[in-house]
Every structure is written in structure tokens, then in C-alpha cells.
Amino acid sequence: MSRFTSAALIVNAKSRRGQALFEQACKALDGVDFPVDAHAVEDPNDLEATVERALAKKPQLVVFGGGDGTVSGLVDLLVGKDVVLGVLPLGTANSFCRTLGIPLDVAGAVQVLSEGRPKRIDLGMIDDDYFANAATMGIAPKIAETVPHDLKKWLGRAGYLSWAAIQYAKFRPFPVSIDDGSGQPRVMRAVEVRIANGRYHGGQEMMEDAAIDNGEILVEVVRGHLRSRLLYNWAANVLRLPQRREKVTVFRGRSIRIDSDKPRPISIDGEVLATTPVTAKVAPGIIEVMVPA
């Protein structure tokens, strides 16, 4: 039986199949043994205000339904509040849910809310902005900046990958400087930089050295002078080949400074929200989240 006596559900209904998934989530939550104050938010600009209104009612559990960007965009509002976070995998990649081991179907995720356990986890930070799973420099923010409105909503992952292929044709490796405080900053030519709190990126396990509860932020630099190195690394990760760690330099610590030859965008769980230079940090054990028992 659940330890909760009250909960709030906030679903980003603008996301792909969001309204239908909201209804599915509400139906699944009918079976839990605590009341749920449910909100379907069709305008993403209203998400924060909806969370604030829900928090004013003092729920013990706050459930976010949406993609990784929805969770990262709202998790700041829970820091310092006496609530437990729950997550429903209603996005495209659902990397944060994968990191936590939450089932990727609504019924399974709801079962975690009622039968799972709370776990205290870290959040990553880019300067003063909290994020749940991972941030990226390279082609990912370029795709996020340019992808046509509603492409993911209507065409899903296939549409997103098609747009990614177009952007890949224009992509060029870039110089990056990493300072982990251990000495002189290290300058490399990179095809991707991953700033990781969790292990997954784009639905694939990419940052296997990351842990969501170890009190460290991890920065991976995939080195290369040719853009083909990026495809090689991605393919090796998907196929779990030993070569997936070739030309990957890993930095870890509580605070890591990242700079580049010019201001370059950084996508935070799929949303472009920062530009270099930045400081990547960890907020150890700052929130509780429901995970499988």
C-alpha cells in the first residue's frame, strides 16, 4: 500500500499524444489508494503556474507526465519542497525514466507510484538551472533549435530522426575546453559533449559511467576531427560494442567548467536553455523520486 494520502498530476498535453495519454494516466490512477489532483496542460507556457497551484494544496506526491524536457523544466519547482516526485513516461525518448528503471508503459509507471519506494537522487545543474538527466553540446542543440514546430508531435521519433539527418549533413566538429579543477583546462576537438546526471541520452544508454546518486556530475567529450566519429560512437553505443569508449574522455567532479571557441548552445534534456561558457555542477541528494521497489 502507498504511504501517500494526496498527489498531484501535471501532464504536458501538448506533447505527442499528450491528451490521449493524460486520459490513459487518469484511468490507471483510478486504481491507486490516494486522491489525485489531475491537470492536463495544453499550453507549455502554463506548466509552471499549474505546478505552483498544485503545490499550494500541499500534495505529498507530485507526478510529472511528459518527456525529459518537461521533467527538467519543472523539477526546479520541487527543490526545497517536502514532496516526492513521480514520473510518467509520456515523451519520445523517456531517458530519465530509463535511468530510474521506471517501466515505459503508463500502467507500469503508475504501479511504481503506488507500490514503489522513494529514492533520494542528485540533480545536475548548468550554472543555476537544475536538470534531471543530461545536457548536450554539439548536434543535439542544433536539432532542437531548428526542428519544425510540432514535428515530434505528429511524426514521432521517425520525423525527429529525419530532421536530425538533415542537420548532421551541416554539422562540423568544434573545439571545447574542460576545466575540472585538477590543473590546466584541457582543450580538445569534439563531436559531442555530454553533461550527465543519468546514463541515458536520446533513449540510449550513452553515459555508462554516470550515476544519479553518486554526488558527482559527469562530462564526456567524444573527440574527433570528422563528423563521422559521432555516428561511429552512436552506433557503437546502440550495439553495445567495446569500441563505444574509443576517443571518449571522461571528467567527473562536483563542478566542471566548460568553454568553447565561441558561444555555443547547450540543450538540457532536449531544450536549448544555455550557452557556453557554463559551469556544470551537481546538487547531491536534493530530491526524492519514486522508483521500482
Description:
By secondary structure, this protein is an alpha+beta fold. The chain folds into 2 domains: 7-115, Probable inorganic polyphosphate/atp-NAD kinase, domain 1 (Rossmann fold); 131-285, Tumour Suppressor Smad4. Helices cover 29% and strands 36% of the residues. The chain has 8 helices and 17 strands. It has a 15-stranded mixed sheet that branches. Strands 10-11 form a two-stranded antiparallel sheet. β10 (200-201) and β11 form a beta hairpin. α6 crosses α7. The model has no long low-confidence stretch (mean pLDDT 92).
Describe the structure concisely.
The chain has 293 residues and is of the alpha+beta class. Helices cover 29% and strands 36% of the residues. It is built from 8 helices and 17 strands.
